[in-house]
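Amino acid chain
________________
===
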Amino acid sequence: MSEYGVENRVRELLEPIVEESGIEILKVSLVGNGKGKKTLRVFLDRRGGIETNELEQVSRALSLQLDVEDLIQGTFNLEVSSPGLDWPLLNEADFTRYAGDWIRVEPYEGEAVEGRNLGLRGACVYLEDRQGREHSWPQSGLRRVIRAIDWSSVSRRSKKKRG
């Protein structure tokens, strides 16, 4: 079976494992390290985040399924994780999953802008900056859009807890 076929079959095996918990399958990839050992990488997430113990449960369940199916010849590593802040937001599902979260928009031309994710409408990315102004860019004009941390909000919350 080709790598692409393995990746698709792994997605099929994962769907019933994650569907009840609202976890989304972001990416499945099978890569080799050049020495014959392969790594199966699975990225999962959901609105509000995913807990480490949930990743462990999915990993164990998927591992059992992979043992039964014997899809990957030889030994391999299984990595089940959630995306980091630098995971790109590419499609409507990504923007919906992180609706209202702080994002960083990096256009090909001009300065990067951070603000609250207002979503993807049509082919345009929308955000609201700190001053409440709405900005939009055609998606084709963007180098990347990633999640970010609103440090001023974190600082305000920290001060309230101490005060």
Remarks:
- Helices lie at 3-18, 52-69, 92-97, 151-162.
- The chain has two domains: 3-81, 92-157.
- Strands lie at 24-32, 38-45, 76-81, 102-107, 113-121, 124-128, 134-138, 142-147.
